[in-house]
């Protein structure tokens, strides 16, 4: 497996990396609250930690919903979080010309699921010299991601991560096929499980995505037992009041409870 270097640790070396933060960088104060709490839990449990927040939600269900403060304001928040807490950070890009400026701050560039096959976007991310985390499109079979890995390799990417976030199972419904994690890892790259987006019900809210938050622990436990290199969680202190993905962000007050389950399962698998 080709390991991914990230701010003093490697993703894919047998340890677990938690990629977590609020869906949207709503404010510096929110990001500080989430980052500080999750960093502390991860340090105690022996997990690596990467902070995540989006500066723009470009694929919202409705044009009338909040997108974010924009790239400049969002990257300023990420930069402040990095300098305050000493953690690496990641965020998503949607257009090729966003890759270079975002790479000045982000340690990992994230490619949204709906854009995972966009060659120009993948190439722009690869040439920044930063690792690229690609979320598998809801319309792809896991074996189809081999082409994504090969594209990024051809573009000279320094590191690739593949993220499972559910597959379209019918109207407004996603399902996670856990063996997909092993299939994607067979392509020689670390794999991540996105527990919170896998709980979504796309478009089910009419003008927003719905979701089943309480399904997150079960899917997380299952993915951990199968084997993952990273776990992606969107976490918010008041999910119901979040400006995006309010149905599926995990409550900050329950983050320790969930991550302790993850640690117990990983320890059991190692034994």
Report on the architecture of this protein.
- Helix 2 links the parallel strand 4 and strand 5.
- It contains eight helices and 15 strands.
- Helix 4 packs across helix 5.
- The strands form four sheets. It has an eight-stranded parallel β-barrel with strand order 3-4-5-6-7-8-11-14, surrounded by six helices. Strands 1-2 form a two-stranded antiparallel sheet.
- It is globular.
- The chain has 271 residues and is of the alpha/beta class.
- The chain has a single domain, classed as Aldolase class I (TIM Barrel, Alpha-Beta Barrel).
- 33% of the residues lie in helices and 21% in strands.
- The mean pLDDT is 93.
Note the topology:
Blueprint lengths: L3 E3 L2 E3 L5 E5 L6 H18 L2 E5 L18 H15 L3 E4 L6 H5 L4 E4 L7 H8 L5 E4 L9 H10 L5 E5 L2 E4 L2 E3 L3 H7 L5 E4 L5 E2 L8 E2 L4 H11 L3 E7 L13 E2 L3 H16 L1
């Amino acid at each position: 497996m080709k390991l991914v270097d990230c701010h003093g640790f490697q993703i894919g070396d047998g340890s677990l990396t938690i990629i977590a933060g609020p869906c949207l960088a709503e404010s510096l104060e929110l990001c500080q609250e989430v980052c500080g709490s999750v960093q502390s839990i991860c340090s105690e449990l022996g997990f690596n930690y990467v902070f995540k927040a989006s500066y723009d939600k470009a694929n919202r269900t409705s044009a009338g919903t909040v997108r974010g403060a924009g790239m400049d304001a969002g990257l300023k928040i990420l930069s402040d979080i990095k300098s305050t807490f000493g953690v690496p950070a990641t965020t998503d890009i949607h257009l090729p010309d966003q890759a270079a400026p975002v790479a000045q701050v982000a340690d990992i560039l994230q490619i949204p699921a709906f854009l995972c096959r966009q060659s120009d976007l993948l190439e722009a991310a690869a040439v920044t010299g930063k690792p690229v985390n690609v979320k598998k499109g809801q319309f792809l079979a896991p074996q189809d991601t081999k082409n994504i890995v090969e594209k990024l390799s051809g573009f000279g990417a320094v590191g690739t991560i593949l993220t499972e976030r559910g597959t379209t199972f019918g109207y407004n419904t996603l399902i996670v096929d856990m063996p997909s994690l092993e299939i994607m890892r067979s392509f020689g790259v670390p794999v991540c499980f996105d527990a919170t987006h896998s709980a979504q019900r796309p478009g089910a809210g009419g003008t927003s995505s719905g979701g089943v938050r309480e399904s997150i622990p079960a899917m997380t436990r299952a993915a951990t037992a199968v084997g993952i290199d990273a776990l992606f969680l969107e976490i918010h202190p008041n999910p119901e009041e979040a400006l995006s993905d309010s149905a599926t962000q995990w409550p900050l007050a329950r983050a320790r409870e969930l991550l302790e389950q993850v640690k117990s399962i990983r320890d059991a698998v190692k034994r």
